[in-house]
Design goal:
heterodimer, A: 309 residues, mainly alpha, MetI-like fold, 13 helices, 72% helix, disordered N terminus, B: 276 residues, 11 helices, globular
Chain lengths: 309, 276
C-alpha cells in the first residue's frame, strides 16, 4: 500500500517557477492530441448537428430546414426497419460473441499442454481485417461450392442458401463479426478467470460443488465486471458496423441487410443527401452515448483514482 | 480442475473445435491462394490442390493497382503509428506524473471523444478535405487514423507508466536531470515492451482501416483493403484466385506479428481493460 501511494503521488514541487514550467510541459504534451481530437472528431461532430438541420448537398448552398430531415426519417418505414435490424444485429452479435468468448476462456482456464500455442491460434482472427474476413467467409459460405455447405450436406442435412436471402445474408455477416470479435473478449475473460484466487475454487470443490456450480456461483460472479464492460464495448462497436455490411452484402438484397452506418453512407455518398445522412448520424451518436456513458465514467474515474469519493 | 479422464478428453475436444473455428478459415484461404484457378471452386472442396504461385504472379496484371495500394497501406500505417505513439507517450507521461487540476479537461475529452463512430465525422470532413486539396492523399488517412487511435494508446501506456515507481526519476532529478530528461532516460527504456505492444495494436487498426480510405481516396492514395473490396464486388466474373492472393499478402504482416507477439498483445489488452 505504501509503495502504491508513493508511485501515484506527484513529486512535491512547491515553488512558483517550477509550477509554471510544469504547466508548460503538460500543455505541450497534451495539446497535439487534443488538437487532433477536436479538429478531426469534435468539431466535425458538432458540424454534423448543424448539417442535420439543412438540406446540404455538395455544390448546393445549404438551407436551414429545421427538423424536416428528422421528421422525414422517423416517418420512413425503411429507416425503422434498419433501426430495428441494427438493434437485433447488436443483440445477436454481442450475445454470440460473449458466449463464444466465454466458452473459449473457460476451455483455456483448464490445465492445457502448450497453452501458449493454442492461445496464439485462437486470437489470430484479431489480426484479420473486416475485408479479408469477408473474402474468407464468402468463400467458405458459397451456397454451391463452399466448404460449409459441403460439410452440411455430407452430414445429410439440407444445405443453406447463404447470401441469397435477407436472413442468410444477415447470418453470414453475423458469423464474420463474431469470428473477428471474439478473440479480444476471450483474452479479457481468460485474464479475469485467472484472477480468481485458487483457494476460492478449492474451497468450493471441497464443499462438493460440481463444475457447473463452481462456474455459476464462483467464476461467473467473479468475472461479471469484465463481462459487462466487454458487453458495452462490443455493443458500441456493433452499433457502428459498416465494413462487413459494405463489403459482404452491400446492404442487399435491396436494403434488407442495411444497418445504420451503411444507410448513412449510402444516403450521404450515394444519393448526396448529406443533411439526411447527418440526421442518421445523430441517431447513431445517441445510441452510442447511451451505451458509452458508463464506460466513459469508469475510464475517467480510473484516470484520477483520487477522485473516488 | 483436471479431474477425471473423460473431463480432460472433453476439454481437449472442445479446444480442437475452438481452434478449428478460429484458425482453420485463415488457413483455408491461404491454401486456396496457392491453388490453380480452376481448382479453387472444385467440388468437393480440397484443402490443398496442386500448389502454384500463379495467383501471386497474376496480381500485377489482373489488379494493376494492388501493389501500389499495398505500399500506400504501409506508408499510412507507419505514419499513423509513429504519430499516435509519439503523442500517446508524451500525454501518458503527463497524465501519470503531473497533477495539474486542469488536466482533467483534456483527459475527459480524450475518453469522451474516442467513443464517436468514424462514419459520423466523414460527412462534415469530406467537403473540408476537398477544399484543402487533401482528398486522395495519405494526409487525411493519417490524421483521422491518429485522432481515433490516440486516446486508447494514451490510456494503455498510462497504465504502464503508473506501474513504474517515480522514485527512480526523482533520484535522477536530484542528480541534475530535467523532469523530461529523467523520464526519457529512466522510465522510457522500461516501457519498451509495452510501447512495442501498443504500437502493434495501433498498427493493426490502421492497417485494417477501411472507411477512411474508402471515402477520402479515389485513386492514388487508395489502400489495400479498398482495392480488395472493389475486386470482390466486380459483378462480371470475380477473379477469386487473384483476390485470395491479394488477401493473403495483405493479411500476412499483421497475422505473423500477432502469432509471434501474442503474449505481449495479450498483456497489453488485459492491462487496459481489466485494471481498475
Amino acid at each position: 500500500m505504501a509503495t502504491n501511494a508513493s508511485t501515484a503521488a506527484p513529486i512535491p514541487r512547491p515553488n512558483k517557477r517550477s509550477r509554471y514550467s510544469e504547466n508548460l510541459l503538460a500543455a505541450t504534451a497534451v495539446t497535439p492530441p487534443i488538437l487532433l481530437l477536436v479538429l478531426f472528431i469534435g468539431i466535425p461532430a458538432v458540424a454534423l448537428l448543424a448539417t442535420a438541420f439543412t438540406d446540404y448537398s455538395p455544390g448546393i448552398e445549404p438551407e436551414f430546414i429545421g427538423w424536416k430531415n428528422f421528421t422525414t426519417l422517423f416517418n420512413s418505414s425503411v429507416f425503422y426497419s434498419i433501426l430495428l435490424r441494427n438493434i437485433g444485429y447488436v443483440i445477436g452479435v454481442v450475445s454470440l460473441q460473449l458466449l463464444v468468448a466465454l466458452g473459449i476462456a473457460l476451455i483455456l482456464d483448464n490445465e492445457l499442454p502448450y497453452r501458449r500455442i493454442w492461445m496464439a491460434l485462437l486470437i489470430a482472427p484479431f489480426a484479420i481485417s473486416p475485408v479479408v474476413g469477408v473474402v474468407i467467409w464468402k468463400n467458405l459460405l458459397d451456397p454451391s461450392y463452399g466448404l460449409v455447405n459441403y460439410v452440411v450436406s455430407s452430414l445429410g442435412l439440407p444445405t443453406v442458401p447463404w447470401m441469397s436471402t435477407p436472413l442468410t445474408s444477415m447470418i453470414a455477416v453475423v458469423i464474420v463479426a463474431v469470428w473477428r470479435g471474439f478473440p479480444f473478449i476471450a483474452i479479457i475473460l481468460f485474464a479475469a478467470l485467472r484472477g480468481i484466487p485458487v483457494e476460492v475454487k478449492e474451497a468450493a470443490k471441497i464443499d462438493g460443488a460440481t463444475s457447473f456450480q463452481i462456474f455459476w456461483h464462483v467464476k461467473l460472479p467473479f468475472i461479471m465486471p469484465a463481462l459487462s464492460i466487454m458487453a458495452l464495448f462490443e455493443t458500441i462497436f456493433a452499433v457502428r458496423e459498416f465494413d462487413t455490411i459494405q463489403t459482404m452484402t452491400g446492404g442487399g438484397p435491396g436494403t434488407s441487410t442495411s444497418l445504420l452506418s451503411h444507410y448513412l453512407y449510402r444516403t450521404a455518398f450515394g444519393t448526396f443527401r448529406f443533411g439526411m445522412g447527418a440526421a442518421v448520424g445523430w441517431v447513431m451518436l445517441a445510441l452510442t452515448m447511451l451505451m458509452a456513458a458508463l464506460i466513459i465514467w469508469r475510464a475517467y474515474r480510473d484516470m484520477f483514482p483520487k477522485n473516488k469519493a | 480442475m483436471s479431474g477425471n479422464i473423460t473431463g480432460r478428453i472433453l476439454v481437449f475436444v472442445l479446444l480442437c473445435i475452438a481452434v478449428i473455428w478460429a484458425f482453420f478459415p485463415i488457413l483455408f484461404m491461404i491454401s486456396s491462394s496457392f491453388k490453380p484457378g480452376n481448382l479453387i471452386w472444385s467440388y468437393p472442396p480440397k484443402l490443398i490442390a496442386e500448389p502454384t504461385f500463379a495467383n501471386y504472379q497474376n496480381i500485377a496484371t489482373l489488379f494493376p493497382r494492388f501493389w501500389k495500394s499495398f505500399f500506400n497501406s504501409v506508408i499510412v500505417t507507419a505514419l499513423t503509428t509513429a504519430l499516435t505513439l509519439t503523442m500517446a507517450i508524451a500525454s501518458a507521461f503527463v497524465f501519470s506524473r503531473l497533477r495539474q487540476p486542469w488536466l482533467k479537461v483534456p483527459a475527459f475529452l480524450m475518453i469522451f471523444v474516442r467513443m464517436f463512430p468514424g462514419i459520423v465525422v466523414v460527412i462534415p470532413l469530406y467537403p473540408v478535405f476537398n477544399e484543402l486539396g487533401w482528398l486522395d492523399t495519405v494526409t487525411p488517412l493519417v490524421l483521422c487514423g491518429a485522432a481515433f487511435a490516440v486516446s486508447m494508446a494514451t490510456l494503455l501506456i498510462k497504465t504502464f507508466v503508473d506501474d513504474i515507481p517515480v522514485d527512480l526519476e526523482e533520484a535522477a532529478m536530484i542528480d541534475g536531470c530535467s523532469r523530461v530528461g529523467a523520464f526519457i532516460r529512466i522510465t522510457l527504456p522500461l516501457l519498451t515492451p509495452a510501447i512495442a505492444a501498443v504500437s502493434l495494436v495501433v498498427a493493426i487498426g490502421s492497417w485494417n482501416e477501411y472507411l477512411f480510405p474508402l471515402v477520402f481516396t479515389s485513386n492514388d492514395a487508395r489502400t489495400a483493403p479498398v482495392i480488395i473490396a472493389i475486386a470482390m464486388s466486380n459483378e462480371d466474373g470475380v477473379a477469386w484466385g487473384g483476390i485470395m492472393a491479394m488477401a493473403t499478402a495483405y493479411l500476412a504482416p499483421p497475422l505473423l506479428l500477432v502469432l509471434m507477439l501474442h503474449k505481449q498483445i495479450t498483456n497489453v489488452m488485459t492491462m487496459g481493460a481489466v485494471k481498475g
